[in-house]
Design goal:
The protein has 320 residues and is of the alpha/beta class. The chain has one domain: Rossmann fold (3-Layer(aba) Sandwich), CATH 3.40.50. α1 crosses α9. The termini are far apart.
Amino acid sequence: MKKFLIIAFILIVGISITAYIMIPKVIYGMVTDFEPWTFEKVLGDTTWIKDYQIGDYREPQDFGYDNTEEIQFTSINDGVKLSAWYVPCKKPTDSTIFMIHGRTSNRLKTMKYLELFQKTGIDTLYNFFIADFRNSGKSETGMKTYMGYKFAEDLAGGMKYLKEERGQNEIVLYGFSMGAMSIYTYIGRDELGASNYDIDRIIIDSPLSNVVGNLRLRGDEMSLPSFLVDRAIGFLNDDINGYVENLSMSAQLADSDIPLLLIQSNHDTSTPASFTKEELKKLSKPNITSWFVDSAAHVKVYTHPDYKEEYTKRVSEFLR
């Protein structure tokens, strides 16, 4: 019996140690690793076409933007090769709206907002830069995004391209979900050089507003012990140079006075509005305007029939 108890104890200790080591790595993988969200993946599956809400549209030319260019640019720091559509304004201008998709997405999903710009005449005021960031669309795949940390470097590469190759001096950043986090992080990480550019305005839709809070919430939903989730967050922190606690809207935008329009649904289960509202309380800044709706799903406020007209009006007025 004594021998059996010793063996059982050893097994229990071994399993516990293995779980302590492996489960956080699995959680971390769920956060950082996801398959490339290519055009082929989306267009080859009617489920994703429906989720992206693009119908039969496949490129800006389908909206009548016949001068659209397919371009390539590179991320800063690691030189990841990225792709985008550059859609020239109907009138010459040095102002551009930079569209930034989120995780498990690509530029096909943000393309539908060209309808809004066309309907309101915004396409007579701005060029449009509709990008694929790493691991998405037609850009280079096989790398991690780190919850917007590396997306911010892709954004910096796009800004560099717009200024140096296109002579664009005034940029509006328009980000969705994790794309919003990439905007905050781009502004918050001084070494990315956001202060060297004229960021005229920011629009964020269904934003990821607090990475640590969101990860802990997911851990609670899976009934995981908090210490295991915290270890997974620690792995993320190690990989992004100790920056994880800064991955929140309030931390990154504390010193920003750029006009910002925030749109989100109170029923958003992917990036809960409760986190966004807490971040707004911490900021309490007059340059931020927010609009929360009640019924739409994540990144589907614009296409919701109850909100499409108001969404169009608010974005149009903000951009003018």
